[in-house]
Specification:
Blueprint (H helix, E strand, L loop, with lengths): L1 H16 L10 H38 L9 H18 L3 E8 L2 H8 L1 H18 L5 E6 L2 E7 L3 H17 L10 E7 L7 H17 L5 E3 L2
Parallel strand pairs: 4-5
Antiparallel strand pairs: 1-3, 1-4, 2-3
Helix pairs in contact: 1-2, 4-5, 5-6
């Protein structure tokens, strides 16, 4: 591309210094210039099309893996992440944990403040998850007002500390419109609470509902 530009620039300078009587005289110099212009135009057009295609592919990939409201991973993308860490566990016994989160009394928020306020609450919680997690962790909107966090290379005690920190921060930081919410959290760790994705997610789900049954706004660990 650079060589083509240099060649074209040299051709223009040559024409300006020694303008021919007839620009389209069939000779070697004009023929080579025409070839260079044609090739340059083709490469420029092809490069532009490739750039647009790459951008469209990226946008489609983001849209396919991102929850529209919260901008977190969607359930499909999180399942892919879980399958990756599950394979790592099978190959090299790398431990990981998950935290399942539910907004307490979310229906009440919608009934009292309206569904727009409910969306604000979900976006507020998503922002907290993004800013208060570790860099290696991944958060997703699991469905409705439920969220799932993947904690790679994490022990049960570490998962408890992270979950409690999130619970406390949500409780003490209302939304910008001053809506106070709390969350319940269920923790499950691979091997300790399940040896497959299905059993692990089920264990975290049971822990979550145990936290809700016991009064909400608390962290529970799977049996």
């Amino acid at each position: 591309m650079i060589s083509l530009l240099i060649s074209l620039a040299g051709r223009v300078i040559l024409l300006l210094k020694n303008p021919p009587n007839q620009l389209f005289v069939p000779n070697e110099l004009n023929a080579s210039t025409l070839i260079f212009v044609s090739v340059f135009t083709f490469l420029l057009t092809a490069g532009f099309i490739m750039m647009v295609c790459q951008r469209l592919f990226y946008d489609l990939k983001v849209a396919a893996n991102t929850d529209v409201l919260t901008r977190l991973l969607n359930r499909r993308a999180m399942m892919h992440q879980l399958e990756i860490v599950m394979n790592q566990f099978y190959r090299s016994d790398r431990q990981f944990a998950i935290i399942l989160i539910d907004v307490d009394f979310f229906k009440r928020v919608n009934d009292v403040y309206g569904h727009d306020a409910g969306d604000i609450v979900l976006m507020h919680l998503a922002q907290i998850l993004q800013t208060k997690m570790r860099q290696i962790d991944s958060a997703s909107r699991w469905g409705g007002e439920e969220f799932l966090i993947l904690l790679p290379d994490t022990t049960l005690n570490q998962a408890k500390e992270i979950a409690e920190r999130l619970r406390y921060y949500v409780e003490t930081n209302p939304t910008p419109s001053n809506i106070q919410i709390t969350i319940s959290l269920g923790i499950a760790v691979i091997r300790q609470h399940g040896n497959s994705l299905e059993s692990l997610i089920t264990a975290a789900d049971h822990a979550l509902y145990a936290a809700k049954r016991n009064g909400r706004n608390q962290v529970a660990i799977a049996d």
